[in-house]
Amino acid sequence: ITLPDNSIVNLNQFSQLEYNSSKWDEARTLNLSGEAYFDVEKGKRFDVKTDQGTVSVLGTEFNVVSRDSIFKVTCYEGLVSVNYDNTEIKVPAGTEFVLKAGKSTKTDIVIAEPYWIKNMSVFDNVIITDVFSELEKQYNIKVIYNSDIKLYFNGAFEHNNLENALKSVTQPLNLTFKLSEKEVIIRNANKD
Question: Residue 144 contacts by C-beta under 8 Å, 6 or more apart in sequence?
């Protein structure tokens, strides 16, 4: 999406953006639900409002996720200000701020832009159930698995080939999958 000031927003799947184009010159403010990557033109203050907090910048590149109970702001260029629960945090380039279940963390990042822009989902020691949830979102499928599986996944899957994505996730963890129309059954290879 190209905004009236030529700022560019890449909106991830199942995300929504709202703004008033007639008042854009007065206030560069928009509402976000979901995830978006922003390349903001320099100018007046630029505010991204979410249910969990507001991100303010003057001109920079950053990614915002406001989904379920996660609020994550990743700054790739410049400096952003994050306001939540009467708290203000400065997030400089190369840094990620995460608010999850009331706890906040700030960590360094080494990537130049979010992976989803390149049609990839990347995970670093993430519980497998979260990986399955992302598969469901990206491919509009239902993943059926034994919730007793307590595995952690390091790796990635692509968004343009379901079978390859399933192999990328299941093979390293010694899991198998069976694919039917809109459903995937995942099992432990040792047990079935």
Answer: 183, 184, 185, 186
Whether this prediction's pTM lies above 0.70 is answered by no
So what's the pLDDT on residue 173? 87
Per DSSP bridges, beta strands 183-188 and 142-144 are parallel
Q: DSSP labels for 78-120?
A: SEEEEEETTEEEEEETTEEEEEETTEEEEEE---SS-GGGGTE
The answer to whether the beta carbons of residues 12 and 116 sit under 8 Å apart is yes
d(CA 175, CA 177) in angstroms, rounded, equals 7
Phi, psi torsion values for 34, nearest 5 degrees: 115, -130
Instruction: Tell me the β-bridge partners of 106.
Output: 97
Report whether pLDDT(192) > 70: no
Mean pLDDT value across residues 87-100: 90
Tell me what pLDDT residue 190 has. Answer: 65
State how far the Cα of 61 lies from the Cα of 108, in Å rounded to an integer: 16
